[in-house]
Amino acid sequence: MTEYFELEWQKFQKTSEEAKLAFFQKEGRIFDILFARQFERKQLDFLSNLATKIRLVAKRKEGADYLRRLLTHKKAMLYFVQPSTRTYLSFLNACHILGIKTSDIRDTFTSSEIKGESSYDTIRTFSSYVDVIISRHPEKDFNQKAAWLLNSTDRPIPVVNAGSGKDEHPTQALLDIYTLHRSFEHRGGIDGKVITMVGDLKRGRTIRSLSFLMKEYKNMKLYFIAPKHLMIEEDLRSFLKKSRIEFYETDNFASVIAQSDAIYMTRIQDEHDNDKEKTQSSYDDFSFTYEHLSILKKDAVIMHPLPRRNEIDVRVDSDERAVYWRQERNGMWIRAALLAYIFHVEKSILDV
Amino acid sequence: MTEYFELEWQKFQKTSEEAKLAFFQKEGRIFDILFARQFERKQLDFLSNLATKIRLVAKRKEGADYLRRLLTHKKAMLYFVQPSTRTYLSFLNACHILGIKTSDIRDTFTSSEIKGESSYDTIRTFSSYVDVIISRHPEKDFNQKAAWLLNSTDRPIPVVNAGSGKDEHPTQALLDIYTLHRSFEHRGGIDGKVITMVGDLKRGRTIRSLSFLMKEYKNMKLYFIAPKHLMIEEDLRSFLKKSRIEFYETDNFASVIAQSDAIYMTRIQDEHDNDKEKTQSSYDDFSFTYEHLSILKKDAVIMHPLPRRNEIDVRVDSDERAVYWRQERNGMWIRAALLAYIFHVEKSILDV
Amino acid sequence: MTEYFELEWQKFQKTSEEAKLAFFQKEGRIFDILFARQFERKQLDFLSNLATKIRLVAKRKEGADYLRRLLTHKKAMLYFVQPSTRTYLSFLNACHILGIKTSDIRDTFTSSEIKGESSYDTIRTFSSYVDVIISRHPEKDFNQKAAWLLNSTDRPIPVVNAGSGKDEHPTQALLDIYTLHRSFEHRGGIDGKVITMVGDLKRGRTIRSLSFLMKEYKNMKLYFIAPKHLMIEEDLRSFLKKSRIEFYETDNFASVIAQSDAIYMTRIQDEHDNDKEKTQSSYDDFSFTYEHLSILKKDAVIMHPLPRRNEIDVRVDSDERAVYWRQERNGMWIRAALLAYIFHVEKSILDV
User: Fold this and answer.
1) What span, in angstroms and rounded, lies between the C-alpha atoms of A206 and A264?
2) Does A122 touch chain C (CB under 8 A)?
3) A2 and chain C: CB distance < 8 Å anywhere?
4) Measured at the alpha carbon of residue C136, what is the angle toward residues A124 and C25, in degrees to the nearest 5?
5) Is residue C1 part of a domain?
6) Which of A188, B240, C61, C128 is the most exposed place for a label (fewest CB within 10 A)?
């Protein structure tokens, strides 16, 4: 980024949280999708219902064709310079569902960066050809900066954060919420449920986002299950206390399985760990085994953001309480809902 | 693949040939497209006629638009981790013809494999977003395994083998059959024709698949022309004898040209040969030269699976008996026919 | 390329300029888009007006849908073995606008070249599946050769040169002309205007193409502003003299800003310069600064082919005379116009 923009950006960074969230809105609606915390209960419910409607309408060919004609005039840029098969495919097929045409850049070598172009100019270039930029980038602030920069031009288009560094991944949070919403649809909704989160709670951003969003729901009870050195961090702990959410931390997974309504498993992200003594097998206590199925509630669900390694026995997959494959598909539906919302066609869908 | 699935897979591998072919069917139709030997005469004729119908209907804009609307609600995954321009483009454009939306992964770096995911999970992930997986993979068994795994889930989708290692490449066999079918349409069909296959008969999988399929036709006469060390292998020889197909092996190409109805040239695949003494020029006797055109029958055809090196003089290209470029296009039409069959819209096409 | 074709190609190369341009025409229309000099004033005006019509029609959903249905039966190949985000995205989205289905090859590793295939065969292969090849290639003559080769087959399809080496980039010239056309639409058109070109005039092919096209316009006045070692080359100088176009060369940028109607900035392409003493800052005199805005005519325009480095202060971007971002979008519109022309649907657009 050029020096001029860098200074302006630093000024913006110092504004209040409230001012920032307002900046990424237009006409009282969320414009850029950057943080999980942009979504309030009302919107979470709305998007979940919209996703379900899209899912049901798409089942029949006539319905699928109706959806596909809604946004034929829109074009999306998928800028995925950080590899991510799952999120990429999910967004691409969400675009397909609504008839959005796509362009993609999946590595940096095809980019003009080698010619010395600033990332500001690269983003403006993308915005010249399309109507929305869906971006996954290893730099923590990249997507937020991109949205901020485009908002200062005379042709602002929305930016959707499809994952930025280890920080934010708001559409993952949305698909987790949607999966809970769907799972508890006939059990009074998410309010009052017991959610158990297991694994790498320190580094896993899905856990963080989901936990922060729990404040939008009533009477939640959360269990955090992790080895001590991978337990949730202090900022989340403070947040939960301040928000008066009931929560417990322990490394005894077996003790809480029977009382959980949802068990959210995560992968221990030790790919880059120096401490080679902590092998995968030392995390066996934080795995969901075939035997655990027998103590799990009949109407509970097992979730996982995927990819998994050994945290869930593959034999669990065929149990109907294992919803992680459905959760993956939910990502496509909720992203389609989000794109429909961004382009103001939600009413045309709900009225079908 | 996880240990659990590996054991189950080994069990499956030990079942009979018949049981295997049945496993990859649903409701009396071929579901997964994995082996050339899945196709019987009836299906070969049917798909050939369907391909021709698609080709003719697509000539006019209204026809092309009719075809393109048939499968607008379907999504395909093109998983091509082994490079193949020709097969990739052919399948992609076959999808375009029928309005199927596509996602593609063309290298392994964008995949989740680096995060330690099993290939089982990768395939299930793909299946979450699409309705068919078209896969080309260097591992011999990969595509078959993928189909087998998906059939054990509650959301099985068909897998199309677009080439797996040196083993099977069923849609290449289909396009070869379709090219013979089209070439002899006004000469009584394929039955009773003399087919000469030239070049690397040991390693070329196209030759093997095509030869095996010859048992579906009557009164065929086959010539195999190759240097001794590249001649067909014993298993094919036994098969031909058992199937009572008339065939001859020789290294004298010139002697059979005049009596051939189709000459199928192939590339000597010596890229990785250690024996550097066998240079390309030492294979000159297994090339189709400009001079050969004068002794070739007036209504014979020259085929080649492509890519070629020096096996066919480029000046032959403009002779109307050279059908290898048409053969390449036939690949697109027969793949479109196959996709139409997979998604049960063949009737909507034939009734046009 | 095989020896046979190489000899034929050399023969073709020796034909007259006139014969060459005629060779790339069919039925009195330009067929292959290879050189900026293929376009005469009449065509430049026609394509500019067509681009404007497309741009206006696409503003409304019904209009966008009308355009998108025009070429649903056509398929394009984007062959971009030389990286170029901008040109790639521009062509891809131009295809999207008209409903053309696309296939792309963006690196050489996925190609059959590794199997020893000639580039002639590669191009013929592409032509088997699609209706137009849009090609960007580092070799100077590649695209021209490709067009020439396909014209000798029984299934010729047009080739569009999307940049070949340092030589020709005709669609960049078209978009520059279109930008001037649009900018001076209400000021009597391009004729009689003062155009100032700044920067690397020796290596920049955009400058060369645009300067050559200036002979199609009346009473032009050109200023070339560059450091001495990057000034225009003798062949362009001779051309301008012969064509009686008024032009001046100087290194004093400031002196001509006030009288310019268009200022065309370009990047100093010193990425591969050995002379490391010439740093970017030594080219400061060839930059458009924020202060320059105050001496620029009220209705002048600032252009740039992009990507830029420091030649234009980012604060200039928000001035309404800065049209380089619009110029970038113009590239998409004029390429859509060109594709509409290639496939003979221009009348269906102009009659809307």
Assistant:
1) 10
2) yes
3) yes
4) 120
5) no
6) A188
A6 in contact with chain C, both atoms CB, cutoff 8 A: no
State the CB neighbour count (10 A cutoff) for residue C38.
Answer: 18
Q: Give CA–CA dist A237/A248, Å, rounded.
A: 10
Per DSSP bridges, beta strands B25-26 and B29-30 are antiparallel
Report how far Cα C322 is from the mean position of its chain's Cα atoms: 19
Q: Where are the alpha helices (DSSP H) in A139-263?
A: 142-151, 170-183, 205-213, 234-242, 254-257
The verdict on residue C10 lying in a domain is no
Phi, psi of C233 (to 5 degrees): -90, 165
- A271 at interface of B, judged by CB pairs closer than 8 A: yes
Residues of chain B neighbouring A89 (CB-CB closer than 8 A): 77, 103, 125-126, 129-130
For residue A31, what is the DSSP state?
A: -
In a domain? residue A107: yes
Q: Which residues of chain C have pLDDT under 70?
A: 1, 108-115, 271-281
CB-based contact (8 Å) between A138 and chain B?
A: no
Encode pLDDT of B81-118 as tens digits: 887 889 999 999 999 999 999 999 987 554 555 567 88
Tell me if A61 and B72 make a contact (CB, 8 A cut-off).
yes
ipTM: 0.93
Check whether residue C175 and residue C149 sit in a common domain: no
State how far the Cα of C248 lies from the Cα of C243, in Å rounded to an integer: 14
Residue C86 among the catalytic residues: yes
Locate all alpha helices (DSSP H) within chain C, ordered by sequence: 3-13, 17-23, 41-57, 61-70, 85-98, 119-129, 142-151, 170-183, 205-213, 234-242, 254-257, 324-342, 346-350
Beta-carbon contacts of residue C78 (< 8 Å; ≥ 6 apart)? C88, C91, C92, C95, C102, C103, C104, C105, C106, C134
| Same domain, yes or no: A182 and A320 | yes
Q: Do B119 and B198 belong to one domain?
A: no
A352 within a domain of the structure (yes/no): no
- A248, A284: one domain: yes
Total structural domains within chain A: 2
CATH assignment of the domain containing A55? 3.40.50.1370
Query: Are residues B102 and B165 part of one domain?
Result: yes
Set C169, C208, C304, C335: catalytic member: C169
Give chain B positions within 8 Å (CB) of A64.
72-73
Nearest to B96 among C4, C69, C75 (CB): C75
Interface of B with C in 33-72 (CB under 8 A): 58, 61, 64-65, 68
In sequence order, the 6+-apart residues with CB closer than 8 A to the CB of A249 are A223, A224, A226, A231, A232
Same domain (yes/no): A47, A118: yes
Measure A152 CA to nearest chain C CA, in Å: 9
The answer to whether residues C36 and C213 touch, using CB atoms and an 8 Å cutoff, is: yes
Domain span holding position B116: 16-169+330-343
Q: Quick check: is A136 catalytic?
A: yes
Q: Is C63 helix (H, G, I), strand (E, B) or coil?
A: helix
Reply yes or no on whether A87 is catalytic.
Answer: yes
Mean pLDDT by 10 residues, chain A (352 residues): 84 95 95 96 98 98 98 97 90 98 80 70 94 94 94 93 87 98 97 97 90 97 96 96 98 97 91 57 88 98 94 94 98 98 98 92
pLDDT confidence tier of residue B166, bands split at 50, 70 and 90: confident
Q: Which chains touch A (3 or more CB pairs under 8 A)?
A: B, C
| C42 and C118 both lie in a single domain | yes
Same domain, B109 and B184: no
The span from the CA of B201 to the CA of B198, in Å, is 7
Q: Is A101 an interface residue toward C (CB < 8 Å)? A: yes
pLDDT in tens, B107-161: 755 455 556 788 889 999 999 999 999 999 988 899 999 999 999 898 999 999 9
Q: How far apart are the first and last CA of chain A?
A: 45
Probe site for chain A from B69, B105, B106, B129 (most A CB atoms < 10 A): B129
Q: Residue C132's Cα: distance from chain center in Å?
A: 18
